[in-house]
Structure formats: C-alpha cells, structure tokens
Specification:
transmembrane helix, mainly alpha, YtxH, membrane, Desiccation-related_membrane, 3 helices, transmembrane, rod-shaped
Length: 127
C-alpha cells in the first residue's frame, strides 16, 4: 500500500476533531464509571446531577468565551476592512491623478510638436 492509498483510507484529522472526540469520550467514561460504581440510587443520582451541573456551567462559560472572541474578531475584521478600503481608495486616487498629469503632459507635448511641425512647414513652403 503506497502513501497516497494510506492517506485516502485514514484521512488526517484536525486537532478540533480530536478534541471533540476526547471530550465526548471523557463524558461517556465518566458516566459509565458513575453508573457502574457500587453506590445507592439516591447517591448516584446526586452525583449525576452534580456532574451535569458542572458540565452545564463549563458549557456556558465556553459559550460566553466563544461569543466574546467572535465579537472581538468581528471588530478586528471590520477595522482591517475599513483600513484596506481607505488604502485602496487613496491608491486609486493617486493613480488617477498620476494618469491625468501624464495625459496633460502628453497633450502639451503634442501641441508643442504640432506647432513646431506647422512652423517648419510654413518655413519650407514657397510663398
């Protein structure tokens, strides 16, 4: 089996996928350990409720952190986009002004050359 076939059969997983699998596996393992531990029903239900509350709290904290980071990222993207837009407009204006100036210079040069050609024609033509 060559390297390409191995990559097709066993695709490389991202770290995020691994983290999700580890988290789910840990939760399943914790639940199994609680269910198979020799404890009375009331105590087991109390432990399960406590673990559920802990997981819920951590999930809320994680969601809050993700929300804050997403808001910060949105602000950064907006700021960078505004800066980029301003920079592009300034560059465009600079290019347009440069083209106008070159066009005016070429026009002046053409007028000057045209005048010189007309003068040369008048000087050479018999009167």
């Amino acid at each position: 089996m060559n390297k390409e076939e191995m990559e097709m059969e066993c695709p490389t997983q991202s770290g995020r996928t691994f983290l999700k699998g580890a988290l789910i596996g840990g939760l399943i393992g914790a639940a199994a350990a609680l269910l198979f531990a020799p404890k009375p029903g009331r105590e087991l239900r109390g432990d399960l409720s406590e673990k559920l509350n802990t997981v819920t709290d951590k999930s809320k904290e994680l969601a809050s952190t993700v929300g804050e980071k997403a808001a910060d990222l949105a602000k950064t993207v907006t700021s960078k986009t505004t800066e980029l837009s301003r920079s592009i407009k300034e560059g465009k204006n600079s290019i347009v002004e440069g083209v106008k100036q070159v066009s005016a210079d070429v026009s002046d040069d053409l007028k000057e050359v045209s005048s010189e050609i007309q003068e040369a024609n008048h000087e050479q033509s018999p009167e």
